Amino acid sequence: MLSDKVCKNCNESFAENEQIVNAAGETWHSTCFVCAQCFQPFGNGIYFEYDNRKYCERDFQMLFAPCCAKCNRFIIGRVIRALQQSWHPDCFRCELCHKALIEMGFLKNAGSLSLDENCLKYKGESYHAYHFRCQVCSSELNENAREVRGELYCLRCYDQLEVAVCAACRTQIEDRVINALGKQWHVEHFACGRCEKPFLGSKHYEKNGIAYCETDYHHLFGNTCFVCNTIISGDVFTACNKTYCVDHFACMICETKMDEKSKFYDVDAKPVCKKCFNKLPSDVRKQIERKKKGNKN
């Protein structure tokens, strides 16, 4: 009976013949059955409930309903959460082929959505492979396609290309190619085998299939001056089974510097210029001369 019921909102009873509202098994005064936010009656009796409170559509959307990242409309019902945003199920689609992603895997591509099946990398981004065709044979590509200088190729056509591959990183070289040691290199990867600094066009030295900068090559394999005991990085003079740098290739007696055109004699395994040699005792000179002739024979 009406006299046994009370209003859900104000908990007051109803007057005889008073118009009441029944909603979800509860009774309300018609003046009490209003939006909890704006206190206005519900248009066409449509309301939305949250935390046991009823709201009109407008206030419910403003307060609780997420906005779709695609259509910018409020989402009522099922919400798809992805990429830190909310989506209508029907708006959650691949940006390339527009297939619904709701039941499929997907990946992020420069802020947009793409299916994760048959994807390939092109210019640093991920795409469906079937959106592209081989540059040579025009066949539909798959995820195994290869990119060369901004163009895509199927594996068969790619294998027929003369593509330079860097000996260091094993990836294709699209810009300048360095040909050295019987191999090909990226400019930045052709480097000294000891200090690992790129040559960048500077002179290099090869030893046992390895390239070295001038400094490291001489440190590892160069000659040491008999006088100053330092690595000889310039011209090397050999005399009396010894090596000398430019500054220390000199007569052992008068210390006059000599060069490749200077005549010298081996005196006690040291170089002596012709002038000083002629000042030596005759018996010493004869002995050195006989030894020199004997070595020639």
TrEMBL record:
The alphabetical list of record keywords is: Cell junction, Cytoplasm, LIM domain, Metal-binding, Repeat, Zinc
According to its UniProt entry, the protein's GO biological process terms are: cell-cell adhesion; cell-cell junction organization; positive regulation of integrin-mediated signaling pathway; positive regulation of substrate adhesion-dependent cell spreading
Specify one Pfam family.
Answer: LIM
Repressor in keyword set: no
Residues in LIM zinc-binding domain copies: 5-66, 68-125, 164-223
Q: Which GO terms describe its cellular component?
A: cell-cell junction; cytoplasm; focal adhesion
> What superkingdom heads the lineage?
Eukaryota
GO MF term set: metal ion binding
Question: Subcellular location, in the record's words?
Answer: Cell junction; Cytoplasm
Gene3D superfamilies per the record? Cysteine Rich Protein
Is Chaperone one of the keywords? no
Protein name per its UniProtKB record: LIM zinc-binding domain-containing protein
What species is given as this protein's source? Didymodactylos carnosus
